[in-house]
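Retro notes - structure team

What went well: the batch runner handled both jobs without manual restarts.
What didn't: labels got mixed up in the shared folder, which is why I'm recording both outputs here explicitly, each with its sequence directly above its tokens.

Job 1
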Amino acid sequence: QDAIDRKEKRSETFKTAVHGLETDTPVLKTEELGRRAPQWVRDNLVTMCMRCKEPFNAITRRRHHCRACGYVVCARCSDYKAELQYDGNRPNRVCQECFIFLTGHTVLEDREGKHKGILEKGAAEVSSRSLLCSSLQLLDKNGKGGTRGWFVIPQDDPLVLYIYAAPQDVRAHTSIPLLGYQVRDMPQSESRHLFQLAQSRQVFTFVADTEELKQRWMKAMARSAAGITHPEEEEEDADE
């Protein structure tokens, strides 16, 4: 029964093995794994291995694609070979999960028992069920430089802002609890659409690509900062 449960669990993960934030991206079904070439996740959409979550770098941890599911993975996580039917049953580089699924073999390392931590939710998964998600820039304290990333307020965790380095990363690098913050509008500076989150001495300054996107983020953050977790709660407050 344990083997059956594990098999079914892997099958569910592969039903959405290749999917992006775009709704028109084709989904690779479980029964098609190895039989049909996957659509590869683009390199520039991830900054870390989509399996072990370790960040990529140009020297010691380079990007590779699993030829079965299309995920971007590191060398360690793709150090497996499996015969793929769509490539004439020739051995191809695949990730550990695909290797287990396609061959039925087991490996010594098993991370299935690990629970997902607060930051270990994939960006694509969270974004598909979000109150708001988009690219923003978070400025440093002096306001001269900053980091561009993918920002998400999830539906199932609406009081927290998750920050990813890229929209397909499998782990957020930080989060900001929004409850109690004040949202401040700032005048446009050098065609930059600025706004802030402030609480006591803690201030975060963001740059949106457009004024319309800025206003959407300010509204969403203000709602979360006030503890409003559902739109209907905001409507009730307005009626009162």
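Job 2
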Amino acid sequence: MENYTMEGRTYRYYGQEAPLYPFGYGLSYTTFSYRDLVLSPPVLPVCANLTVSVVLENTGPRDGEEVVQLYLRWEQSSVPVPRWQLVAFRRVAVPAGQETKLSFQVLAEQRAVWAQGWRLEPGTFTLFAGGQQPAQRTRAPSEVLSARLSVTGAARPLQEC
């Protein structure tokens, strides 16, 4: 084998073809709505962790469970990276007509890229939160919110943080 690229060979590097059944896809007897996506802080040092909160509401007539998914996208990187990376998920039971506020921690190491060793880089990132993948072709009955964050400072090896 001479071609070691992961493009089109693993779920992290889809290429142009999306999977038939993406992560978290499934049917539900109710509907959900997302709102109030908050990144804290929206500008963070290169070695800092990020706190994410979002409100999930069951807008349907029945109790239900939703798999809340957080994805991270690098807007620019010095090395090839996935289109987006799953950084957190949680299955949440929400009674009909109720809402819940969820909080997640995105660790600095989840933003690391491989460049002859794990390295953290400054730049702009987009974080997605919802019941499906960003830009998913097979639609689930929920939406995906997005927010941008900036990472400041100099690039450094992960073990220096």
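One thing worth noting from job 2: Residues 63 and 96 are 4 Å apart (CA to CA).
We'll revisit the folder naming next retro.
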